[in-house]
Specification:
The complex is a heterodimer of chains A (about 400) and B (about 475).
Chain A (H helix, E strand, L loop, with lengths): L1 H14 L3 H21 L1 H9 L16 E2 L12 H4 L6 E4 L12 E4 L1 H19 L8 E5 L10 H13 L11 H5 L10 E3 L9 H13 L4 E5 L1 H13 L11 E4 L11 H12 L6 E5 L8 E3 L1 H7 L7 E2 L4 E6 L12 E8 L8 E11 L2 E7 L22
Parallel strand pairs in A: 1-13, 4-5, 4-6, 6-7, 7-8
Antiparallel strand pairs in A: 2-3, 8-9, 9-10, 11-12, 12-13, 13-14
Helix pairs in contact in A: 1-2, 1-5, 2-3, 5-6, 8-9, 9-10
Chain B lengths: L48 H21 L2 H16 L4 H14 L3 H13 L3 H11 L4 H4 L2 E2 L5 E5 L3 E5 L9 H9 L3 E5 L7 H12 L1 H5 L1 E4 L6 H10 L2 E5 L2 H10 L5 E4 L3 E6 L9 H9 L9 E7 L2 H21 L7 H20 L4 E4 L6 E4 L13 E7 L2 H9 L5 E6 L6 H12 L4 E3 L24 E4 H4 L1
Parallel strand pairs in B: 3-4, 3-6, 4-5, 6-7, 8-9, 8-13, 9-12, 11-12, 13-14
Antiparallel strand pairs in B: 1-2, 2-15, 10-11
Helix pairs in contact in B: 2-4, 2-8, 3-4, 12-13
Classes of the chains: A alpha/beta (about 400), B alpha/beta (about 475).
């Protein structure tokens, strides 16, 4: 099944979305559902509880969605992720910032799924963040990497993005033949820099120094960050009374994460990006992802601008993902604009469960959805009740 | 010997929207301020500093008259007469207010009718007299100064001004505090939740029909969250502040007034218990009522029902409870609530489904469209559920197991619905055990949501907690 899905993802990356592709998605989604029903016992039991079987399902929308919380414990997969002799290649853990470290979601994936995750995440990142193909960029990671946080799905994405897209300003030179051929004996050239260590500390001095050097160079910058870390950098620049002018086409990918430090609002972040780094708002792209999915969603502001469309910002997933906003009471899809819970069907999850029901609150808009926040776990209550608190969630 | 009074009749029969019904009321009950929008005939709640100042002046004068001329027996009679008016099914303010609450709280009217009967039914003359008799060491000292230490005289009184800020999840939370405040001759400023701002004002309007002075001592207040000016003003006026609400709201308020002693009534949890010597079938309807009432949003809703004995007893109760809940669903259809509440409910259902998928002995009994959800599971930690007609049923092997579960509760306990005949030998032992764990209400299933007026919420006696011996000078 994973080969079929891989081929589909590759064809989407090569040709983009189309009516034919959408029909193909529907067919493939049903096959994936049937495969997961057979191979993931927990999911099969859930489907049986809801009296839904593969033969009865005619659309991805009808496939029972596994609550994201179910991934706090192992899925007990019979499928390839477990049938192979080797242990899972990676176990991604959520940060646990929303529900505490004892309630971290875990997503075990095989080596093949890891490879699919790389293609999926990089493919959509290129499409949404680099539609103008600015070429190799100076990449600074202000967040986890696979090296510092091996169980972080976001860390892997940052690392891969840095490797694929990065060109360190510290080694501002044209690639040599050895670089191109990857001769044995050559030390690998780090393609990106990071200012975030394994303990989660951000090296602000190093980050600011890096930005100062990047501002003096000509290569556009790609900042991969959490909201809290980029906020800290802006505050540092403010305190030092520094206003840098990064090269044209520099951009920021903000992956959220508002806990563990101060975090600017969306508008505040856009203003600060212009004020301190000279990066316009349309080059600040927000990413939304979760440990439970192997695909991500991005603000389509930059993509729409590049395509010549004038649309309200919305989060858009790749062609191998479908999302719907559902009513929490009835689980029926809601029309655009109405707030509800986000449900995703991610083909890249084919070795675990594709249909994931989140507790993220959002609404449909434009070509995708906008996320408002994450509903908190049931708050303790007595003769009291607080129902209006929404906290913003983040990918691990 | 208690003074006997003839049956009280109101000066005028209160009619909603009838300005004449408030003729002669104290100035802050100006008919011109009647809430035309609600048509309740109730005065507008105090919302500005000027209005509060005026209401306080009236209240202080009224309190002086009450201290001089109104006895406890009279207060009891007046309160019970006013409450009795609200027990009449066709009492216009009641029917109008129930309509408003049904809309604002998203609760079926029938449920609110039942709730009003419980709220105002608790304010009976005998219950109030019993409250005074049991909680006041010298009831006569409520009416007049009595000899005290050092050849002085003193009187048992509550603080001059009390302030209650109330949560809005269940209706009628202001009534017991008003009763206690008036019995202790305190001026009572009551801030209802924005979600149900009318009941206190409406009840006070009825009270005014029997005693303008007592009504003037109750000041319904209402201001937008974040109006720090009003909050500061009220906190300065009040000698005692009681907050009921979510833990985070109360933390926030307490932090704004660090030097003021504040009584907080925070999160609590309740459970059901069916002991081994009891028949499970007998209690299904009672528990169903407790689960459905006020949509399970109060602290007296059973979140988990523990059934002592073999698993089959708990399983049977789960299934029977499903039948009872489906009957109540037909009677009081559930109205979906706002997104965060429904999301919490969905989270509970999701977790229950996953638990059933993982553990074969677990099962769910669900109503049509998930109108109710009973989750039987073999092991259940005591935690707060979403309410909204969702409940967990779990077996416990024996008493030790039961009390171990209760001891491990994440939240302080409020009530236990004990499925046992009150005359049974085990009742007293079990009640004592629950009280040792901080439980303040032990009652039969079906009565959990209708606590008696003397219920010592959070372990604080309703009336005795307010009263202190005060000399004449202190009382001025």
């Amino acid at each position: 099944m994973i080969e079929t899905v891989s081929q589909f993802i590759d064809s989407c990356l090569a040709d983009g979305d189309s009516t034919e592709r959408r029909e193909h998605f529907e067919r493939l989604a049903l096959e994936v559902f049937a495969f997961q029903y057979e191979t993931v016992p927990l999911y099969r039991r859930l489907c049986d509880l809801r009296r839904v079987r593969p033969g009865k399902v005619t659309s991805w929308r009808e496939a029972p969605a596994l609550p994201a919380d179910a991934l706090k414990e192992d899925l007990d997969t019979d499928g390839p992720a477990r049938n192979c002799d080797a242990p899972p290649a990676r176990v991604f853990l959520s940060s646990g910032t929303t529900k505490g470290s004892e309630h971290r979601s875990r997503h075990s994936i095989s080596a093949r799924s890891l490879s699919l995750y790389r293609r999926s995440s990089l493919g959509h990142l290129r499409s949404m963040v680099l539609p103008d193909r600015p070429g190799p960029m100076a990449v600074l990671v202000l967040g986890p990497t696979a090296a510092t946080h091996p169980n972080s799905s976001l860390g892997h994405m940052f690392e891969w993005a840095g490797e694929e897209l990065g060109f360190s300003p510290q080694q501002e030179r044209e690639p040599t033949d050895a670089d191109r051929t990857g001769e044995i004996g050559q030390a690998p050239t780090p393609a990106f820099d990071a200012a975030f260590d394994a303990e989660g500390h951000l090296d602000l001095a190093a980050a600011v120094a890096w930005l100062e050097r990047a501002a003096a160079a000509t290569r556009p910058v790609l900042l991969l960050c959490l909201t809290t870390t980029i906020t800290a950098v802006f505050e540092e620049l403010r305190d030092r009374r520094l206003q840098l002018r990064l090269p044209a086409d520099s951009r920021i990918v903000d992956t959220g994460g508002r806990k563990g430090g101060r975090a600017l609002s969306r508008n505040g972040l856009l203003k600060a990006a212009w004020r301190f780094l000279h990066i316009p708002a349309y080059l600040c792209v927000t990413e939304y992802g979760m440990t439970e999915l192997l695909s991500q969603f991005y603000d389509d502001a930059l993509h729409s601008r590049w395509a010549g469309r004038l649309e309200p910002r919305s989060k858009v997933g790749p062609a191998w993902v479908r999302s719907v906003v559902v009513d929490p009471t009835t689980l029926t899809p809601l029309p655009p604009g109405q707030r509800g819970l986000l449900r995703h069907f991610d083909l890249a999850n084919c070795e675990s469960v594709s249909a994931i029901q989140t507790l993220d609150v959002g609404y449909g808009i434009g070509r995708g959805f906008e996320i408002i926040g994450r509903a908190p776990e049931a708050e303790t209550r007595g003769c009291s009740q607080l129902l209006s608190m929404i906290s913003t969630g983040s990918q691990s | 010997m208690k003074t006997q009074f003839p049956t009280l009749t109101p000066r005028t029969v209160p009619q909603f929207g009838d300005p004449a019904s408030h003729a002669g009321s104290p100035s802050h009950y100006d008919p011109a301020s009647t809430l035309a929008r609600t048509g309740l005939g109730a005065p507008a709640s105090v919302a500005t500093a000027a209005a509060l100042d005026q209401a306080m002046r009236e209240a202080v004068r009224a309190r002086a008259r009450v201290l001089d001329t109104v006895t406890t027996a009279e207060i009891i009679e007046i309160l019970s007469a006013a409450a009795n008016a609200w027990l009449q099914p066709h009492f216009a303010p009641r029917t109008r207010l129930i309509g408003l609450l049904a809309r604002d709280l998203r609760m079926p009217k029938g449920m609110l009718e039942k709730g009003f009967d419980a709220i105002f039914g608790a304010v009976r003359e005998d219950a109030l007299a019993n409250l005074v008799a049991t909680e006041v060491e010298d009831p006569g000292a409520l009416d007049r100064p009595v000899p005290f230490a050092n050849s002085r005289t003193a009187r048992l009184l509550g603080p001059r001004v009390l302030f209650h800020s109330l949560a809005g999840n269940v209706p009628g939370m202001s009534i017991p505090p008003i009763v206690a405040a008036l019995l202790s001759r305190s001026i009572c400023i009551v801030r209802d939740s924005d979600r149900q701002p009318h009941l206190t004002a409406a009840f006070t309007a009825t009270l005014a029909e029997y005693s303008r002075d007592l009504a003037a001592m109750v000041i319904p207040a209402s201001w937008r969250a974040g109006d720090m000016g009003m909050e500061k003003l009220v906190f300065e006026q009040a000698q005692r502040v009681e907050l009921t609400g979510s833990d985070s709201t109360m933390r926030s308020m307490v932090s704004r007034h660090p030097r003021r002693p504040i009584v907080t009534r925070g999160s609590r949890i309740s459970v059901g218990v069916v002991p081994r010597e009891s028949d499970t079938d007998q209690w299904k309807d009672g528990f169903a009522t407790d689960i459905v009432m006020y949509e399970g949003l109060g602290c007296l809703t059973p979140q988990v029902i523990y059934v002592e004995g073999p698993d089959r007893r708990a399983k049977r109760l789960a299934r029977l409870l499903g039948i009872a809940l489906s009957r109540l669903e037909a009677l009081y259809p559930r109205v979906p609530r706002d997104l965060p509440a429904e999301t919490r409910r969905r989270s509970f259902i999701d977790a229950a489904e996953i638990n059933c998928a993982r553990q074969r002995e677990s099962f769910l009994v669900r109503g049509r469209g998930d109108g109710f959800v009973v989750h039987y599971r073999s092991e259940a930690a005591l935690g707060v559920g979403p309410g909204l007609r969702c409940v967990v049923i779990a077996p416990v092997a024996d008493r030790n197991d039961l009390f171990e579960h209760l001891r491990r509760s994440q939240v302080p306990l409020a009530a236990v619905g004990l499925g046992l005949d009150t005359q049974a030998n085990a009742w007293a032992d079990l009640s004592a055990g629950f009280e040792d764990l901080g439980v303040t209400l032990v009652c039969e299933p079906g009565r959990m949501q209708a606590p008696p007026i003397e219920w010592a919420q959070d372990g604080r006696p309703r009336l005795a907690d307010l009263l202190e011996w005060r000399t004449v000078e202190e009382n001025a």
